[in-house]
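re: the backbone from monday

yeah here it is again, tokenized this time
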């Protein structure tokens, strides 16, 4: 049986903040590398490399990936949802701005909070926690609010719809990890299904999108892809799988609101973008919202 905790402890909180910080940095890495390496081709290299790293990790630790344990069907479902999310994100970016896409994508925690308690009653949020979730989301919307001041054409609305679908698929992936046979799988096996299916599907996505593929890139591009592979697609995703397996998914999902704000912070630090009062207030709103979501219930 999995030793599942009812609340986040300092270790889980530290891991979550570290993961969200790197995912925010990863958005900067993708943004600065896409001029050389198209996004889906980046994903192909990242996921293939992550599969290799994960298999070496499992070999060293004696974790069995290919034994029959009844998870194949649910594993392929999770992998398909994960790959579908990537396709929607990268296709959506062709029709709408990254900032608008970010806002719609981060509806994912609401999918988890609305659907998961129907299968796992212990994941149900109280009123104050719903307020916290709404406040955290409002912080993200406020941070990117300028992207909504421009008229939206039909193609932009198509991109927004794809972003919403990506957020839904992200939430459904978490739901499947908690409510199917995947709940009994190791973190390594749960991750393997997702990155292996995506590694198989992303070259086809790249081909369908007409991306220019190759291997002759600058040292910076390869350094960026190496970070995205080793830390992003392998280490942080594996940590996330472990967290989903051991902690309440509705509570850990609230931390993902930090990711787009970390991306803005790294933009200030690394790309010399201006630090605005709007960003500071958004960070405060998300922080307070996360605290409310993870607030313990009063003793009876």
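seq for it, each position gets an aa:
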């Amino acid at each position: 049986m999995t030793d599942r905790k009812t609340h986040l402890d300092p270790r889980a909180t530290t891991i979550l903040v570290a993961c969200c910080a790197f995912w925010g940095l990863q958005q900067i890495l993708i943004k600065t590398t896409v001029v050389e390496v198209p996004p889906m081709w980046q994903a192909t290299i990242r996921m293939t490399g992550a599969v290799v790293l994960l298999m070496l990790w499992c070999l060293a630790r004696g974790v069995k990936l290919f034994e029959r344990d009844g998870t194949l069907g649910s594993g392929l479902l999770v992998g398909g949802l994960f790959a579908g999310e990537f396709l929607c994100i990268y296709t959506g970016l062709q029709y709408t701005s990254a900032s608008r896409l970010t806002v719609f994508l981060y509806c994912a925690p609401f999918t988890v909070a609305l659907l998961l308690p129907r299968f796992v009653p212990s994941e149900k949020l109280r009123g104050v926690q719903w307020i916290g979730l709404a406040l955290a989301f409002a912080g993200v919307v406020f941070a990117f609010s300028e992207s909504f001041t421009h008229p939206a054409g039909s193609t932009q609305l198509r991109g927004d719809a794809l972003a919403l679908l990506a957020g839904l698929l992200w939430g459904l992936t978490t739901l499947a990890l908690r409510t199917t046979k995947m709940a009994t799988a190791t973190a390594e096996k749960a991750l393997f299904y997702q990155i292996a299916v995506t590694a198989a599907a992303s070259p086809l996505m790249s081909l369908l999108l007409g991306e220019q593929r190759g291997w002759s890139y600058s040292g910076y591009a390869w350094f960026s892809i190496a970070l995205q592979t080793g830390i992003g697609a392998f280490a942080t995703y594996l940590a996330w799988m472990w967290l989903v397996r051991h902690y309440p998914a509705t509570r850990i999902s609230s931390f993902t609101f930090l990711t787009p704000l970390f991306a803005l912070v790294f933009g200030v630090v690394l790309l010399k973008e201006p630090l605005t009062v709007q960003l500071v207030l958004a960070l405060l709103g998300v922080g307070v919202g996360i605290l409310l979501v993870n607030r313990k219930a009063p003793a009876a």
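The chain has a mean pLDDT of 90. The chain has one domain: 10-126+149-266.
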